[in-house]
Amino acid sequence: MSHLIHLTIKFLFLFISHIHSCQWSSTQCGCAQTSASTHHRIVGGTQAKPHSWPWIVSVRQYGSHICGGVLITDRHVLTAAHCFPSYHPGNRKHYSFAMGHHRIQEKYFVAKAKRIVLHASYNTNGKSINDIALIELDQIVDFNNSRFGFICLPLKHVSEGEAYPPIGKETWVVGWGTTRYEGQVSQVLMQVTVPITTNKGCKEVITTPAKQVCAGYDKGGKDSCQGDSGGPLVLDIGQGVFELIGLVSFGIGCAKYMKPGIYTRVSSYIDWINTIIKPTKPDSISNEIPMPHALLSSKFDYRKLSYFTEEKLGQATDRTEYDDNFEEMLARADRTKIWTERLTSHVETILQPNINERLEEFILTKLDQKSLNKPNIHEQLGHCMCEAGNDFGPSTQYGSALIKCGQFHQKLGIAHKEFIQSVATSFMQPLKSFLDGEMRSLTKERRTLEIKRLDLDAAKSKKKKAKITTSSAIVAMADSSDIELRHTQAEFDRQLEITRLMLDGLNNSHNHHLRCLNDLVESELQYHRQSVQILEDLRKQLGLTKSTMNSSIAPSTSRTMQTPRTATVKFDYDASDPNELSVLAKETVNIILDNNEKLSNDADWITIERPHTKERGRIPRAYLHIDNLSS
Asked: What are the protein's GO molecular function terms (predicted)?
């Protein structure tokens, strides 16, 4: 049915558009005063005609372009969630949003973000599901200015039960991204046409077709690229009116053979968008806000829909309220979900700060290629040092030192890989399994509970209305409403108990997460200990070279050094801090003072050094008998 309605609307629109072509106005979505056309050599694309895409936005960090975006109202911008790695409200001020310009260096209109909302279920483990973010600007965009416009949003859930857009349909991608892989950002706005596809390369990478869409040529040559992330994939639905299909999410390289671009399918996020936009002022120029999807389901009859509307308008008087303890449990579940998602996201950022590397590792895993075989940054540095050392000559002092450093940095790389594997197994996998399993089931049960509550409240309202009159027909209706009320009450109580039991289970989940947190700390400790040991061994390996170099450069240094002041240890002392040194009675040690520093009689602690091992640390002054008082 939705498919038929959608086609009918499209047909009527196209019929009318034959009579009236796209005319730009402050209230017309998807229309530009300057029609889109092509001019010079995005990858394989052309230079856009200035101001022919009035809804395009440049997302900037510290003033530099990082992503694209698209205006959907006079104060809201859609873009990709991965454009804001490790985002928190404190760094919102670092981002700005420029629009109305053609050249990237222009600053025609720049707004800041009043708030940045990332999709709560966006994950950064390479899958890029729910890669969408909505920004509320701190200024209103003046759509009376022909440089500005807003894109038409697609009809809600048009992708369900049909291929929309049809396979092979030409779409447009617009942005200031690089014109070649790892190239420079384009100085002018670029555009390219790419067809919707479901080729082999798409199926190998895409994980959720309902939320993602592929576009690109099998032979490659044309594609979005770096810097285009978050930019719009749009469809001409007739007479120059454009509809937003997707947002640039990720891809394998740019414009490669059988490697299409992957886009977030916007039609699957209309409810999410509307939920965020609703709190804004009613006079906002925007796309129409549809009814919630749940109320359009066949499970809801007119009476329930009517009651839901009354409740939202504050006119319902029979709303079933949960007890305070249950409300607290619900709030605790929400906090658990939010913070678990944030924790896993931040730990992923520590393990691999580069989001492109995370995407590549995920894609290689999907293609059954082991990503761990790829050298990490420590191993790459080690390989570079070894090559440099061999080039300078292993027999030279500098070349030999470079080779040793390279070998030990490769060991650091191996230790880092082991650390990543340990954290992934002991921390990341359990928490992600919790989100994908227990938390998802809990969310489903909560939704069911809300439906049962609406059923119960609607039954209460029906019974209340039946009591007002006394006719025989109404009496029979009242009896029927009594039966319905008892039934819905029993269903609600049953679902409430199920949900309560699942909420109680969060205590066990928190205990499990605590163990996972301990494992994380243990893995970090082991990794840093191993790294310190590797570097200590490297320092010892370089010790002879260092001493030889010092002796050859400054042979008279030892003669000019002052004789160190010494002390005799009175009693055994066991160190209780890493900065302290354990010593034995009658042991002779050197007292360490800074240049021109004199030993203070008021000092409670003194730094000492063993003459032979050069170990240093602090001990209480009372444990020492100071020698060489005359020096």
From this structure: serine-type endopeptidase activity
Confidence of residue 498 (pLDDT cuts 50, 70, 90): very high
Residues 149/31, Cβ–Cβ less than 8 Å: yes
Alpha-carbon Rg for the chain in angstroms: 34
DSSP annotation of 294: G
> Token pair for residue 579?
């900065």
Q: Say how far apart CA 340 and CA 436 lie, in whole Å.
A: 11
CA–CA separation, 324 and 303 (whole Å): 29
Could you tell me where the DSSP H helices lie in 176-256? 200-205
Q: Which of 131, 223, 228, 455 is catalytic?
A: 131
- Any idea what DSSP says for residue 223? B
Catalytic residue among 82, 157, 409, 513: 82
82 part of the active site: yes
User: Quick one: angle between helices 472-504 and 440-466, nearest 10?
Assistant: 160
CA separation (Å) from 411 to 189, 422, 535, 536? Answer: 46, 17, 10, 13
Q: Are 119 and 79 in contact (CB under 8 A)?
A: no
Task: Give yes or no: 40 in active site.
Answer: no
Contact 345, 125 (CB under 8 A): no
Distance CA 214, CA 218 (A): 11
User: How much is the average pLDDT of 502-528?
Assistant: 93
Res. 552: pLDDT tops 60: no
| 298-340 tens-digit pLDDT | 344 545 555 555 555 555 556 788 899 999 999 999 999 999 9
Measured N-to-C along each axis, helices 377-392 and 397-423 cross at an angle, to the nearest 10 degrees, of 170
**Cα gap 81→627, rounded to integer Å:** 67
Under the banding of pLDDT at 50, 70 and 90, the label for residue 467 is low
Give the whole-angstrom CA distance, residue 204 versus residue 181. 21
Residue 525 CA to residue 513 CA, distance in Å, equals 18
In 3D space, the residue among 536, 151, 459 whose CA is nearest the CA of residue 303 turns out to be 459
CA–CA dist 619, 608 (Å, integer): 7
- Which residue, among 426, 386, 388, 429, has the nearest Cα to 405 in the 3D structure? 386
Alpha-carbon span 277 to 584, nearest angstrom: 72
The answer to whether 80 touches 258, Cβ cutoff 8 Å, is no
189, two tokens: 């706005």
User: In 10 A of CB 442, how many CB atoms?
Assistant: 20
Which stretches does DSSP call E strand in 198-350?
A: 212-215, 232-238, 241-250, 261-265
Exactly one of 58, 96, 224, 229 is catalytic; which is it? 229
CA atoms within 13 A on the CB side of 165: 25
Structural domains of the chain, with CATH: 46-275 (2.40.10.10), 324-542 (1.20.1270.60), 565-626 (2.30.30.40)
- Please give the Cα distance from 90 to 95 (Å, whole number): 11
Q: Please indicate whether residue 395 is annotated as part of the active site.
A: no
The arrangement of strands across the sheet holding 605-609 comes to 616-620, 605-609, 588-591, 566-569, 624-626
DSSP 8-state assignment for residue 151 = P
Integer CA distances (angstroms), 172 to 222, 236, 267, in order: 11, 8, 17
Distance of CA 101 to the CA centre of its chain: 28
Report the interhelical angle of 472-504 vs 324-351 (nearest 10°).
40
Question: Nearest to residue 276, comparing CAs of 157, 132, 91, 158?
Answer: 132
Please state, in angstroms and rounded to a whole number, the distance separating the CA atoms of residues 132 and 551: 62
Could you tell me if 463 and 478 are in contact, meaning their C-beta atoms sit under 8 angstroms apart?
A: yes
